[in-house]
Amino acid sequence: MGASELPDDVELLQEMVRQYEATVTELQRRVEQLEQQLAALTRRYYGPRRERFDDRQQLLFEVDDEPATEENLPARRRAKRAASRGHGRRRLPVHLLRKRIEYELPSDQLACSACGRERTKIGEETSEQLEYKPASLFVIQHVRFKYACRKCEECVTVAKKPPQPINKGLAGPGLLAYIIVSKHSDHLPLYRLEEILSRHGVRVSRSTMCGWMRACAQLLRPLYDLMTKDVLKSAVIHTDDTTVPVLDRTFPRTKTARFWVYVGDADHPFCVYDYTPSRSRDGPEQLLQGFRGYLQADAFAGYNRLYAGTDVTEVACWAHTRRKFYDARLTAPQVAHDALARIGQLYDIEKRCKALSSGERYDVRQKDAAPLLESFGEWLTEQRRQVLPKSPIRQAVGYAISNWTALCRYTEAGFLSIDNNLSERMLRAQAIGRKNWLFAGSDVGGETAAVLFSFVASCKHNGVDPYAYFVDVLSQWKTTKRDAADFLPDRWRGRHPEARIELNRSA
Fold first, then answer.
1. In terms of CB atoms within 10 Å, which end of the chain has fewer, N or C?
2. What would the mean pLDDT of 115-122 be, rounded to a whole number?
């Protein structure tokens, strides 16, 4: 790109420089990694295997005989160190049980060193230390008393026991909740849970725990269906999918199935997962049947039949578009960095209006983003005539142009998002889980996981402790007279403020 080809917009030029700088930094980091790997391989094949370290080498880095402490550090360095620690240690939650340990002065130290009189207690200093007590298993004995008539010795009856989550099941609500959260939130495979329980002296096979999970999913299926119907009332739904390996006895290896996530809007704050044996369009079409509103997703052709009607409006994802230009930056740096700079300007506008209301955000987008998009569209049309066919940058430009209308649609309403990162974050649990539990045992196991994932993710999305939620719902679901909607995570949270947790949007 010659000087005559550079844009005249100063802000765009500055953004291009920042994009170039980010690319150079990453390339430098990559070169350092490759150099380190090359040095390690060279040392492995040609150098000594033993790693020697002389303790005296540490003296080369000592500039003062006195060790660095908070007291002898210069004020500037103390401030910098304090800033790196954030705002200091957080206070421990007040709801945690406190165990008070008191320390008295020994009797031989009570005498005043100045006058010899006995010193009296005038106050106390308290410091807190966080301690941990391992979880424990215990047995609940359900004792049902028998009654009979002493006179005729007939009509024997037994007191009734409340329905349990699993009829005649060994596991109580707390243990079931622990296993659900451990696998679907903490990503622990069942064989590890099998080992954890065995340390408490209880042998529970993973096949038994699989049966428990299936029974819990079947029990909560009506609530899952209710949550799905509520999500379909949203004005906008974010959706995405990810792969999951599944065992199939008819194949020599695992087959590839899919988890789909559907995230409702602020008025319907639930995350519903669906499982399908393949990535066919039947999955989204079946679950989204009856939905009317905006659907934000990637450019998967399986959604096209939904968009063909008048009920569902497509909203594309700028993060996907940016990724394609980012991948092409090494083969066509000028064009790619120009595109990245333009996309960066759009995201800068979103950062500025993040805290605004929906109406205010719409006004800002119309005023600031719409002109940038118009200029960007003209630039893309020009680049398509210049870049090489079938090149990575041509594919990036073509992707943006073919989805241009859907990419610009986020400016039509303030409640729409510029990208689909929300649904991608909601699929992080499955991505992390795959590295631990590796595969689903069957299609039934995939459907079970989809139901339980839905409740775990919806609890986190609403700031609810999923363990406390499962314990309460599993205990009451069969006997409750409440409206089923009262057990949806957002309503349940209102009745159980003690189970609220701090929201972590990045998790």
1. C
2. 88
Residues 6+ apart with CB under 8 A from 95: 498
**b/e sequence 354-370, b meaning 16+ C-beta within 10 Å:** eeeeeeebbebbeebbe
Q: What number of other Cβ atoms are within 10 A of residue 74's Cβ?
A: 8
Question: DSSP for 260-315?
Answer: EEEE--TTS--EEEEEESS--THHHHHHTTT--EEEE----GGGHHHHHSSSEEEE
Q: Is 241 helix (H, G, I), strand (E, B) or coil?
A: strand
Alpha helices in 330-427, H assignment, sequence order = 333-352, 358-364, 370-386, 392-402, 404-408, 421-426
**pLDDT bracket for residue 53 (50, 70, 90):** very low
Show the tokens assigned to 153.
């010795």
pLDDT tens digits along 201-238: 899 999 999 999 999 999 999 999 999 999 999 999 99
Cα dihedral: 335, 337, 343, 347 (round 10): 180
Given this model, what pLDDT does residue 505 score?
52
CB atoms within 10 A of CB 20: 16
Quote the DSSP letter at residue 4. Answer: G
Residues in the chain, overall count: 507
- The residue type found at 37 is Q
The H-or-E segment that residue 469 falls in is helix 466-476
Nearest CA among 242, 316, 305, 251 for reference residue 279: 242
Weakest-pLDDT range from 9-18, 60-69, 122-131: 60-69
Average pLDDT for 464-489: 94
CA distance 505 to 282: 30
φ, ψ of residue 410 to 5 degrees: the values are -65, -20
What's CA 111's distance to the chain center, in Å?
A: 59
Token pair belonging to 108: 């031989």
pLDDT for the residue 507: 46
Placement of tokens 């290896």 in the chain:
253
For residue 86, which amino acid is it? G
Helix (H) or strand (E) holding 239, with range, is strand 236-246
User: What is the tens place of the pLDDT at every residue in 295-304?
Assistant: 999 888 889 8
pTM across the whole model:
0.78
CA 404 to chain centre: 29
Cα separation, 390 vs 83, whole angstroms: 50
